[in-house]
Amino acid sequence: MIDYETYCKIRDHHDRQKLTVTQTARALGLHPQTVAKWVRVAQYRPRRSRLRASRLDPFKGQVVRLLESHPYSAQQIFQRLVEAGFAGGYTIVKNYVRKVRPPRREAYLKLSFAPGECTQVDWGEYGSIAVGSTRRRLSFFVMVLCYSRLMYVEFTVAQTMEHFLACHEHAFQAFHGCPTRVMVDNLKSAVLRHLVGEAPVFNPRYLDYVVSEIMLGDTGRGMLDRRFFSKYTT
Q1: Which residue of 54, 80, 100, 112 has the smallest Cβ count within 10 Å?
Q2: What is the spatial distance between Cα 92 and Cα 74, in angstroms, rounded to a whole number?
Q3: CA distances from 206 to 2, 148, 166, 194, 214 (A)
Q4: Which DSSP symbol is given to 118?
Q5: Nearest-angstrom CA–CA distance, 74 and 93
Q6: Of 119, 93, 103, 90, whose CA–CA distance to 180 is shortest?
């Protein structure tokens, strides 16, 4: 079997240059019988490879059904096929699983916020710092406005409630206002307990701060729904 480029050269030598079969074969380094065969072919068609039967063919439907029911590994599927009578090897199963496995979709919740609606707060750590004759852990408080992504960062030497609330005050002053809601997720400074399927239990001191500064609304999933009452303008 020759490739398409060689076929084109044969037709060019024979049809356009008017060379004989023998001359064309000699010019291209081919056997005359090969040239004679292809000058009679009006259109090049590559040879179609025959699909070889695989030991996995009778089990392919089962593989697909298993993957649709659960994200099994290739090894787990191989074990189940062996139990069902499959006599092939693991490699062919692994390659087929990789080919037909449904794409994994990342689980995420897309959130959208209006200007001034919500902010996120969190603690982070950044090594340590010398304080007198000792070293203290260096923490930083972060508040990010969800709409504009404007960020306030303040470094502290502790993550106490006093530092936590003071950082809130400083962030609100820096932003010249307070958003409607604050998202704390499961931050320990704000949430004492959050069991799956249940409402979060907020730190009482944090709730006291909220009540003293703002009107507390609905709560859920680590989020305080707030309306600012005094000190700052929204």
Answers
A1: 112
A2: 10
A3: 80, 25, 11, 15, 12
A4: E
A5: 7
A6: 119
At 68, list the tokens. 């649709």
For the chain, list the strands marked E by DSSP. Answer: 118-131, 134-145, 151-156, 181-183, 191-193, 201-202, 214-220, 223-228
Amino acid in the structure at residue 105: R
Q: 51-103: per-residue pLDDT in tens?
A: 677 889 999 999 999 998 888 899 999 999 999 999 999 999 999 999 998 88
| 44 vs 113: CA distance, rounded Å | 61
- Give the number of other Cβ atoms within 10 Å of residue 207's Cβ: 15
The C-alpha atoms of residue 97 and residue 60 are separated, in whole angstroms, by 9
**Residue 58: C-alpha distances to residues 63, 68, 98, 147 (Å):** 10, 18, 18, 54
Q: Look at the domain 118-228 and name its fold.
A: Nucleotidyltransferase; domain 5 (3.30.420)
The structure tokens listed for 156 are 């502290």
The tokens for 219 are 């709560």
Phi and psi of 31, rounded to 5°? Answer: -75, 140
Torsion of CA 39, 45, 51, 52, to 10 degrees: 20
Nearest one of 194, 189, 186, 148 to 168, comparing CA atoms: 189
Q: In this structure, are residues 180 and 234 in contact, taking their beta carbons and an 8 Å threshold?
A: yes
Residue 232 · residue 177 · CB < 8 Å = yes
The residue assigned the tokens 């709409």 is 147
Give yes or no for residue 217 having a pLDDT over 60: no
> Any idea what DSSP says for residue 15?
I
Question: d(Cα 140, Cα 158) in Å, to the nearest integer?
Answer: 9
